[in-house]
Amino acid sequence: MTDDRDQAAAPDPDDAKSDQSASDLLGAALGGAARRAGLDPATGASTGHVVWRAMGGWRGILESVLPSLAFLVLYTATQELLLSLIVSVGIALVFTIVRLSMRQPASAAIGGLVATGAAAALALWTGRAADNFVWGFITNGLYGTAFLVSALIGWPLIGLAVGFLMSEGTRWRADARKRRAFFWLSIAWAGLFALRLAVQLPLYFADNVTALATTKLIMGLPLFAPLVAVTWLAVRALYPRSEPSAE
């Protein structure tokens, strides 16, 4: 007769299967998002092309920069919160309408519009222009925490996404070189979000709106693009393309 204690100590295969399926689902979601952004190592695209696609090209850059730039310029020049917010949200709305009218993928533009509108609503409600940046603090905190925690528990988000894109699943965890690379890449992304908070939160509490808006622009795409390039090059080094054999 089997000892009950042995049964209690034995690992439950259902739990392992559940953990595996959860990682597969998360990897599929992250990998799908990366593929839509043009970050698929299997394509063999150049680093410059990948970074450009990740930023969304000229339209993506304008959608990311113009609402914040309009708010910065108008508020600095006029100190009129309502006018600055209306123009900022209006620009985001125009970009979204253009994408929808052209039947192009509008998820990023809609997400930007929702974030811009929510931040503007909070600023209008409190009457503080600095509160227009609170939503950015929340998203940076959430993203940074997700990258950091995933790396520390041994399931870095970068690895899950790449494993899906390369049809490897979670087998990369058996390769120490890949585990180290994905760990440090995830730590680097967590560091980017943490750096934004470390620089911008003191400006928020000091109510220095002009400096806060300026640093948000500087620490946006100018920091995002190089880290995308580093991540891409590191992944390509881990998964070199096989050259066709000569007949």
Automatic annotation (TrEMBL):
InterPro entries, sorted: UCP010219
Chain intervals for the UniProt region annotation (Disordered): 1-21
The keyword Transmembrane helix appears for this protein: yes
Top-level taxon of the source organism: Bacteria
Alphabetically ordered keywords of this record: Membrane, Transmembrane, Transmembrane helix
Pfam families the UniProt entry points to: DUF3159
TM region(s), chain numbering: 56-75, 81-100, 107-126, 146-169, 181-205, 217-239
Protein name per UniProt: DUF3159 domain-containing protein
